[in-house]
């Protein structure tokens, strides 16, 4: 039995990569003895890619990449061109994009039901300056409103947080200092009602390193909205994927995978963290799962 999160991710990625080495009628025969094999050119078209996406069965489970079939089908007229270009170049070069083999941070649907976490991305990104300004105002207070991280996750450094929601419960006192941000979030009960998550500001100062660790549950997805990001020196690794934050942009990842953070910039980093129920949980599970 595999219990290590990174090992599980690697097994899934290895399985996913095998999909692209199977001989089938679409790709034709793949040469095996050439050191740099080239796939035979086919008459693949953008329309064919879109047609195949429209035939995906939406009642199936997501593949190892974590993208739900409904996402692929409902966005077929948006993603058909980039997928066509990727497939075309892949067949021409005989290679698969590196990110397809190692990435564990995946696209999330941006519109539709409120149960989909990606719906929060446009709302948060469109209002990121409001969220940032209220966070900075709290930081300017001389009352020690940001509390040090207390889970012993730091190897070294200075990392503090200002929590608005915890285990689905609103901190009324904290929200009074960030009223516009809290009003925005109350439009999204899948986040504010997530009893296995938090909503908080996180400030990390130079010289901080957060140990490799995993979150307590895979029942949620975690979003990081960049608010004040130094140009260099700040990065996060989730499983095999390392990224940097951008101001006004959201990163979405499953923090049950091992992740690690470095802050080696020359100034502080401020982000906004929002947890949401995992989209694969049923409404019954969301109502009955105990808080942690």
TrEMBL record:
Pfam families: Asp_Arg_Hydrox. Residues 125-279 form the Aspartyl/asparaginy/proline hydroxylase domain. InterPro entries: Asp/Arg/Pro-Hydrxlase (IPR007803), ASPH (IPR039038), IPNS-like_sf (IPR027443). It comes from the Eukaryota. Belongs to the aspartyl/asparaginyl beta-hydroxylase family. PANTHER family: ASPARTYL/ASPARAGINYL BETA-HYDROXYLASE, ASPARTYL_ASPARAGINYL BETA-HYDROXYLASE. This is Aspartyl/asparaginy/proline hydroxylase domain-containing protein. The lineage of its organism: Eukaryota, Metazoa, Chordata, Craniata, Vertebrata.
């Amino acid at each position: 039995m595999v219990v290590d999160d990174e090992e599980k991710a690697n097994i899934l990625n290895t399985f996913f990569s095998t999909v692209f080495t199977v001989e089938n009628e679409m790709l034709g025969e793949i040469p095996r003895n050439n050191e740099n094999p080239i796939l035979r050119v086919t008459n693949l078209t953008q329309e064919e890619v879109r047609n195949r996406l429209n035939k995906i069965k939406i009642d199936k489970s997501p593949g190892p990449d974590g993208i739900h079939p409904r996402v692929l089908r409902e966005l077929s007229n948006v993603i058909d061109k980039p997928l066509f270009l990727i497939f075309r170049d892949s067949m021409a070069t005989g290679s698969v994009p590196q990110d397809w083999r190692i990435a564990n941070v995946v696209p999330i649907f941006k519109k539709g039901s409120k149960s989909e976490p990606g719906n929060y991305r446009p709302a948060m990104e469109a209002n990121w300056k409001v969220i940032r300004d209220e966070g900075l105002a709290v930081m300017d207070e001389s009352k020690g409103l940001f509390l040090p991280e207390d889970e012993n996750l730091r190897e070294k450094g200075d990392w503090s947080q200002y929590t608005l929601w915890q285990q689905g419960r609103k901190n009324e006192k904290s929200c009074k200092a960030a009223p516009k941000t809290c009003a925005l979030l109350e439009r999204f009960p899948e986040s504010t009602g997530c009893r296995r998550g938090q909503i908080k500001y996180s400030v990390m100062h130079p010289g901080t390193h957060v140990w490799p660790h995993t979150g307590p549950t895979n029942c949620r997805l975690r979003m990081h909205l960049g608010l004040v990001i130094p140009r260099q020196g700040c990065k996060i690794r989730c499983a095999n994927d390392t990224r940097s934050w951008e101001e006004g942009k959201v990163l979405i990842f499953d923090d049950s995978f091992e992740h690690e953070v470095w802050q080696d910039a020359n100034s502080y980093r401020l982000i906004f963290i929002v947890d949401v129920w995992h989209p694969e949980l049923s409404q019954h599970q969301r109502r009955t799962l105990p808080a942690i």
